[in-house]
Amino acid sequence: MDTARTPPEPDAAPSADHRPGQLLMGLGALLVAGVLAYGAMAIPGDAGYAGVGPNFLPWVVSVAMAVCGVLLVWEALTGGFRHMPEPSGAARGDWRALAWVSAGILLNASLITTIGFVLSCALCFSLAVRGLRASEGKPMGGARQTVRDAVTGMLIAAPVFWLFTKLLAVNLPGLTSTGWL
Are 43 and 54 in contact (CB under 8 A)? Predict the structure, then answer.
């Protein structure tokens, strides 16, 4: 008798219909791409460093967002996530994890000019790690873990700051008037 287990056959369609949500995400990505493209048109295209003007990155992001939106809409219209089984356990995701990571990104963007690149990135790192722990069902840890996460974030952000400001001559916001920290 064979004791090896065979995986269950995946269903042809998941129990819930994800197509409306996927279609809305695709249309939202196309809307954001259009807004970015409209904003990129207002930026002067004078070539600067390496022949690239300041409107280059907004156009790249706009095109990438449009491609993702078109692919999401196409997939939703041709059946959606029909080949994916319904996730279970940790794979289902956790809204708290999304909230922690989003808070880290938003705080980083809003505080970078106030507290400097290194500290705002360390805060972003700490909150993102907290969110990733929440998504895996791991304990958040106490004050000691929070300090360890913040120090790790600073150890990652400080060399990045140094590389950009010293080697690439790109100005990043610093906490002091000398630009460091």
Answer: yes
